[in-house]
Each structure stands twice: as structure tokens, then as C-alpha cells.
């Protein structure tokens, strides 16, 4: 027998014996597995994202089968439909949970946050955050290196080149939470989608004091507390100089959005607010006030103001008297026609009286304004005359002083010339 044949027979015998031993051990130590695990696993989306908190869909199926209550379990990818199917297989009741979506709580765009330095290192958020605070003055905001985008298995995120921030595509987001775990700054949060995809949240996580936060980012939450004071549902809490909106209590009234001085509170998918239309103004009823009218009113004497007041009082008294006359006419009449005729007559008398009173008032006001203007003109002329007279007197005094000074200078010159002539004569006589 050749050595080759002997080796084949030996190895084959060893393998057969080992197979028998393994089969006997498998039968001996066999563990029965619930067949419902496979059934539940089949209806799961097989995303293996870990959003449920278990290592893959198989681990989640095993947890569902072993659990007594499904209230604390949820498949973010499959949603309520998948959980209802799993509950029907297991004969249990699944808790109804609201759909969630990821939200980026940072609005520190390139325009809102000035860059102070440039990072030149490993392009991962985890490494950059462990080294320093970031390229801007805000050490809480997004680093913009896109590690959250890489962690998303559903292509529900991308980096906006203009703003430098991640953008979440709501239709693709399954709320698995992978981006939440990947972000070292904790700026991504899972929130309720809300009715008609409407939601309100504070897009800031800066815990610095107001002045420091505002200096680092123009749209940062400064912890002023205005939103906290205006919220009627106690849905906002202030903690560490930062406002936070509880989506379970928020009723989407949007009062907090209006009062925020830095626009740090965002409202998504809301219709634009209705702007109240201003009433139209009739140009015919607009009274134009000119500068001349203002000056005339300022220069109007007290007597004219008193006269106008008296006229107004007389007009009001006349109207009250006419109203009282109208009130007493109707009960005394026997027929409706007579009362209507009396009212028409009274109205006509009122209009005539009002016109006469208005005409007299207008004439009185015109006379008083003319008198005031004449008086003002007279005062101006008197002031001008007095100013001219004072100027003439000042000019005469100045000319007299100039003449006296000139005469004095002439006398001094004559004296000096006489003295020089005498000196010259003495010198000549001496010679």
C-alpha cells in the first residue's frame, strides 16, 4: 500500500470520527430557539442601524420576543407600522410613538460666526474637538467637518458649502440617531416631527453668558429669558444661560419666536404670518399743515385762543339745545309725518346756525390773525429802527475817536519837527 493512499484513509477516518462526535454534541447540547424571533426579524427593515439600541435587527427581534411589554421599544426606521406587525406576531400591544426627526441646533453660519483661525489637522470632528474649541469664538458650535454626514447610512444629510453646517433631509431621515451619537458637540437632537412637519426649537447650544455668546455669534441665545416669560404653556426652561423648548409641552403658538431678540428660535414649515392691511387714506380728507400755519399758530395771541374756545363752547351749547328740542318734539306730535317734518325743520335750522357760527368764527379768526401779523410787522420795524439807530451812534463814536487820534498824532509830529528845526539852528549858530 502506498503512502499516499494510507494518508487519505487516515485523514478520512479522523474526519468521520470528528463529525460523529460533533453531531452527537450538537444533539446533546442543543438549545431550543423561539421560532418567533425569525418571524419578527423578517418584518424588520434589516437596516442594522442600531437606532433601536441593540446590535442589529436580530438582536432587536430577540429583545422583543423576550420582553413582557413593548412600551419601551421602538424601531425608528420601520416606525409604528413595523411595531404593530411585531406586536401582532408576539400577541402583545405596541406603544404608539410619534415620528421623530433629527434637528441641528446650531445656526453658526460663516456670516453669523467670524472665523478666527484655520484648522489644519485630521478632518474629523472627534479629533478636532479634542484638540481645541474650533475656528470661531464659539466653542459649542458645529465644527463643520461632516462626521455626522459620514455616520448616516440613509443619505439623509449633507454639508452646505455656503453655511458650513449640516443639512438634514427630512424625507430620508429615519431618526436612527447615528448622527446624534457621531456629533462630539451634541448639537444634533431627535425631536418630534410635529403636525404638518411644523416644529419650534432653539437653534443654539452656547452656554456662555449673553455678551460673550453674542460676540462669538450674532444669532446666539443670550439667556435673556423673554421667551421663558412669554410662554403660556411652561414649555421653555432656562438652564446654564440657555433656553430649551420641550417639544412635548410646546403647542406651536410661536409667541417665543416673536420676542427673541437674536432670532435664535427657529420655526420650520410654518406659513408666513398675515400682515394686517393698513386702512386706505382718502386724500381729500387729509389736511396739509404748512410752515406758515404753524408760525401763525405760534404768533396767535392769547385773546384769539380764548375767543376760539368760547366759540367752540357756544357751538356745543347750541347743538345740545337743538338735540334737546328734537327730543321733546316727537312725543307731542300725533302723526309720524308731522314728527318727520319737525325733525327736518330742526335739522335745517341746525345747519343754518352752524354755518352762521362757523362763518363768524372764520371772520373773527381772520381779523385776529391779520391784527397779529400787523403787530408782528410793527414790532419788527421798531426793532430794525432801534438797531439802525444804535449802529449809527456806534459809527459816530468810532469816527470821533478816530479823528481825535489823528489830531493827536499830527500834534506829536509838529512838535518833533519844531524840535528838530531848533536843533539844526543851534548847530548852525555854533558853527
What does this structure look like?
With 431 residues, this protein is mainly alpha-helical. The chain is 53% helix and 7% strand. It contains 13 helices and eight strands. Strands 1-4 form a two-stranded antiparallel ribbon. Strands 2-3 form a two-stranded antiparallel ribbon. Strands 5-8 form a two-stranded antiparallel ribbon. β2 (157-159) and β3 (166-168) form a beta hairpin. α2 packs across α3 (56-66) and α12 packs antiparallel against α13. It starts with a helix and ends with a helix. The model is unreliable at 286-290 and 325-334 (pLDDT under 50).
Quick take:
This protein is mainly alpha-helical. It has helices at about 5-30, 35-45, 55-65, 80-90, 125-130, 145-150, 180, 210-215, 225-230, 255-260, 290-300, 300-330, 335-430, and strands at about 100-105, 155-160, 165-170, 190, 200, 235-240, 240-245, 265-270.
